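Next comes this protein:
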Amino acid sequence: EPACSLNTGGDSTLPWAAGATSVGFGGGFSGSNFASSSLPVNTMPEKEVVNDTDDGDEEEPGCPSENSDELDPDAPSLCTLATDENGSNPFGASTSFTPHAFSSTALHHITERSGGWESESEKQTFSWSTPSDPVVTIDDEPCDDQQDGSLPDTFWVDMCSNIKSGAGMKVVNLQLNPERNTGYNGTHIWNAIYEENCINLDGSSSTPMCYEEQVLYRLLSGMHAATTLSIAKHYYPPSKRKGRTNWKANPDFFMEKFGDHPDYIRNLHFSYVVLLRALRKSSSFLYDYDIRTGNIVEDETSQFLLQRLLGSTILRSCHDVFTAFDESLMFKEREAHEFNSDVISLQENFKGVFHNISSVLDCVQCQQCKLHGKMTMLGYGTALKILFLPREELIPAALSRNEVVAFINTIAKFSEALKEVRELTSMYWVSKIESTKHLPPPVQVFDEEEAENTVIIDTDLTGIEIVDSLVGVVSSLAQQGHINDQIEAELIKRAFSRDPDLMVLAKHYASAPHKFLDYLEYLGIEKEEDEPDVIIIGSGLAGLSAALNLLDRGGKVVILEKEHRLGGNSNKASSGINALCPSEGPCDDEFESFRNDTIRSAGDAAQIPLIQTLVGNSGEAVTWLRNRVGVDLSLLAQLGGHSHKRTHRPSNGMAGAEIIYGVQKRVREYEASGMVQILVDTKVTKLLTDDNGRVFGVEAQKNEQGETLTMTAPNVVLATGGFAADRSNGSYLSHYRPELLRMPATAGDFSTGDGIGLAEALGAGTVDMDKVQIHPTGWVDPSDPDNRSKILAAELMRGVGGILINSDGKRCVHVI
């Protein structure tokens, strides 16, 4: 998965992105115990909330209206903070939002793709007209860099710096503001948070997650899970009309969010371990921490409880648990390659992304939600600061009182969330058992012969509710063409016969039709194999573009890629894509000019019809990438061989990586419906043909398992790459351009011409096999100058002013 795509569970790009309206920053801290050590909120009784964006007088977008079914007419807004001072706005600042406060491309991206906002106020939250800075920005180099090239020991001290204080900062009592369901829809906030989680060294969103990025993602997911658990536990507010005197839980909401996603709960456990590990590392400092609020009784009580926690046998006995995470494994290359610049960049990126995510919280317009979101991020930042500081003696000077308060309360919040998992699970199953006690008896089977082979069980599995769900999922699968009439009839018959195995399957998987369909084979029901319309071999820009066009037209597609990641050499393209400007864009370029430039560049190999097709369709290609894929290609440059500026590139990254990320993201949107299947680590070894020579499928081999696959389809598309990296005897390079074998290549090691070989085996002809591009510039690693693989020093460098010189330091070529 792309690093910024963050596929969790395999069926969506963002966890719970399409969830109910209350999945956002609408819940949080409700408990008072830390594990069994009884650490209440008033251990740190009040927290200084830092914020400068809210005004208590403005209606909260996305919060329940006065006509909400769950609220009494005279009930106050659930988004408003309770304060010790009547009517006081704890944030003490205007609601007007200034977009220049953020350096977040993700927020701009969300404004582009969102289908609409909850309110005009929420829309204005994202109302800027130009893209912001790249996700990770390092404004100033640390002034105390060590001369050996490593980062200073104090590098992590400012982890929490983007959780800013407002001019009218007030103290907020957390006991008066427990985290619960406010009705605020924070889906756009969560989307922005997950979009920011991209810290790869090369900035590419299409590379797999590095270890550090996985850690940050799991922390964000753990925070998301804790928030959703608080919502579920405190879902329905008190209501005189409804006869509720206290907040009431919604176990069905809990099961909807977590029933099929145990990984979310695992991420919550992981986050808790990270917090506990930081607590243990800072225990000597916190044990004697001076809690001074002015209330002597509260201060003494809080200090006693904190010392009880730190000195408890429970904390001392958790050694094995602490080893579940080890922060020393992060940025590990720094040890293997002393003062490695890549590791330093990774550390800077990690902190920069954390800062950006912290800034995203300023977009939350529900005061209750912002309070708990910022408290958790402040607690996370404090924990990471403690863990990453190289020496424990740095901790006292690095932590502020507000950070300590947030840290302790975040630990308590996650402890309470873990307890709520058990409570809500129990409540859910108790409610299901109770709901089946008053159901009618099961329907009898059709005839005596069937009765002899049917087991009638007197449990909730025979209830009409389960039968109804089962018939519903069968009907849905049949309407979508996933099962034929024969299987549909068989399933309906077994449903009304109360087949116990089928009823169990329906009980747990009726809400996930594709999993239900997959598991039917365990009941002896073989599902009909649904042949794709097209098999595409290769996942570079050609293959992914073909796939997306087919999917948009209703086709069913299988993509086969021999590498572990999608994109091939298209990922490496950095300079841009050449095209006439789209008709609505500013441009003085003309068709004839672009055509003549291309003919002149091609020389004797020019094929005029192909060149006219290329030039004539180029503007439409850029328009498609922008409108359908969502890629920003707004920057123009004039590169080699061109008489005008016509090389389009994005403003926030490399062209190839941005385009591939965008196209594969759109393609993967079809995965949940089953319209596309993407198989990586799968190398096609043979094209299958019938007696007439028509290709009807492929044979492929899974790289890891060595398993051989056979797939058929009426159409097969070859979209494989070139052969520049294959220097073996008998390779295409050795055959057509042997003099180039001594030269390094910037193409990936996977560029071995497999697709050309597959086609030639069927008698296909080839053209221009000797036309191997020789690029004049590439990056040379001084420590390994003879390495056959190089990173391209892109043409873009010359397009923006770079020059080429010879070994005497003199210019030797016209660079444009």
